[in-house]
Amino acid sequence: MANIHDVARVAGVSISTVSYALSGKRPIGEKTRRRIDEAVRELDYMPNAAGRMLAGTRTRIFALTAPLRSDTYAPAHMAFVLAVATAARKYDYDVLLLTEDEATDGLHRVSSSRLVDGIIVLDVSLHDERADLVRSLGVPAALIGVPADTEGLVCVDLDFEAAAGLAVDRLVDAGHRSLALLGHPPMVYERGSNFPMRFRDGFLRRAADRGVRASFSMVEKDAPHVRTALAGVLDADPAPTGVVVHADEGVHKAVLEAIAARGLSVPDDLSVIAGVPTFDTSGFTPPLDAIPLIPADSCTRAVELAVQQLDGTVEPRVELVAPKYRDHGSVAAPRPGS
Amino acid sequence: MANIHDVARVAGVSISTVSYALSGKRPIGEKTRRRIDEAVRELDYMPNAAGRMLAGTRTRIFALTAPLRSDTYAPAHMAFVLAVATAARKYDYDVLLLTEDEATDGLHRVSSSRLVDGIIVLDVSLHDERADLVRSLGVPAALIGVPADTEGLVCVDLDFEAAAGLAVDRLVDAGHRSLALLGHPPMVYERGSNFPMRFRDGFLRRAADRGVRASFSMVEKDAPHVRTALAGVLDADPAPTGVVVHADEGVHKAVLEAIAARGLSVPDDLSVIAGVPTFDTSGFTPPLDAIPLIPADSCTRAVELAVQQLDGTVEPRVELVAPKYRDHGSVAAPRPGS
DNA sequence: CTGAAAGCGCTTACAG
DNA sequence: CTGAAAGCGCTTACAG
């Protein structure tokens, strides 16, 4: 396999000229550049990664630590992993995958050995040991998700409060005066990430700000529970006319089935918005308005922030990505008199 | 950050002695070793990855190319990715993740730049350009899945024919004389991987060998189709008393529901086996016998074969992993007289 | 059992 | 606009 000396020899220049020509870090004469390009092509030369890593200041590799916990929804998880890898490539970075059982040891290993330039931390829980490790390692890192203690960390996440606010606004603007939030099972609020709480709080706060009634219920995943919970919610007086669902895909479907089973139609009898789904709600029956959690958004920003840290100019921060509303026709004005 | 010279100085030895002490590639005197260990601990020394890669013959990184196609079942995909990463760590290897859009370019890049020692190819389709690329690159590689042309390649996969044979044997041994296979939708057999065909062929061949009747139907994913397809299959004369399902999770559940809806009970009226599920069938109602596709099995073997290629001793081959039967009580003798 | 030294393939001041 | 050379941090023959 050809190395930089081969290219230099064939092109009749020095290796430093070859290096500069390839990196573009200094201007190269027209003819020289052409001869080098030709030699590179002729020899099918590609710079050796190890040589580059050792001489340069960058490895051009990020570690990605992505635990797969039992409560992880695999399709979303996969989407985040791919979004990070895709974003990294835009900056000429590769992604080294660290698994759950290697979480802390692996981070230690790849950063101490300088295998990676930085770390992207996925699926951050409230008390995540990886957050503490990243802090103590002092290595460039970006977390996707917000831990309890964000001191000294760079975090990126969807603005779940604003997302909930957006849902409330949409419903209130359409004329609804009584809203309900169907949330995850209690277990989800007790441990794990904090975004379900942030969504709930954003919902209740915005409803209060707008002066409308709002209820919040936690719903177990199985269809019978969903039916019962929905019945309880809709039998309230005054009955909510706008419902926001923040739960997993199955619960969304079960909610829609339960609504249909009650003889109600969306959006004529009831307006429904999907909270922050990681799945597509436009194919549901009926299609559901949504404020989706878009992996590419947070992941791209996280990678960007990691890259910027290498140039040494990023203050610790929590950056919240603005939510976007996707209209699929599941919100309408409430029935007159309801 | 400390380097090998620091360790050598603190320990009062040469850097080569430090290197050998850490690699264990030559015997080191008792006291010397202790002094080195102490220096390493004191300085929190960890060898620099780039230095190691450049001087040594290994990068200790494998590339993992894992496309996420539209017909990919994310949980299974994720499980394979994690199984590769976990297996790699056992050999002190890290895994670099290559995404779909980088499939061939990425493979070219990481192997030409010698960033990786080898490649693990996941989710191999019948005519997979990555297979051709791996062949032409001549880089150590192990494919998980079997492409149409395996010339010069090292492939690992579950023995789907044997898996189907196992299912047939189990049913025939229990006394069944008429079997049915409910397979994937036609689209799956037309393109993509070849394992559905291998399972189907294994099923039909073993049934013929054992001298029992066997039918094969392709089933669309939606519940109504599943009901119709099941009805068609069970109304045959003589009606099958043993059914093997090779489809995705939703279809399995729909099949069980359709069976229950017909007033039939498993295994008393009908014996049912899940083909090669990537999901857990022991929590189904009723729990289903299965011959599962176990990611760790093929992935561990693939990593092993990739590692062995670095020592230069692996002939091209297709290695099929033996299937295992998991009994959950969904197979019984057919009703007398049926 | 241990050390001095070459060399892996680059990048980047330094010099012209 | 270009080159000679040092140096990144290791591994590994070579030598004793």
Strand share of the residues of chain A? Answer: 5-15%
Distance between the termini of chain A: 77 Å
**Fraction of residues of chain A in helices?**
40-55%
| CATH class annotation of the largest domain in chain A | Alpha Beta
Poorly predicted runs of chain A are: none
Count the beta strands of chain A: 11
Rg of chain A over CA atoms, rounded to whole Å, is 26 Å
Q: Roughly what is the average pLDDT of chain A, rounded to an integer?
A: 93
Strand order of the largest sheet of chain A: 2-1-3-4-5-11
Order of helices and strands of chain A: HHHHEHEHEHEEHEHHEHEHEEHE
| CATH architectural designation of the largest domain in chain A | 3-Layer(aba) Sandwich
How many individual domains of chain A? 3
Instruction: State the CATH superfamily name of the largest domain in chain A.
Output: Response regulator
Query: In terms of quaternary structure, what is this?
Result: homodimer
The largest sheet of chain A, given as strand count, sense and whether it forms a barrel, is: 6 strands, parallel
In CATH, the topology of the largest domain in chain A is named: Rossmann fold
Apparent shape of chain A: elongated
Structure annotation, total helices of chain A: 13
Structural class by helix and strand composition of chain A: alpha/beta
Biggest interface and residues each: A-B, 39 and 39 residues
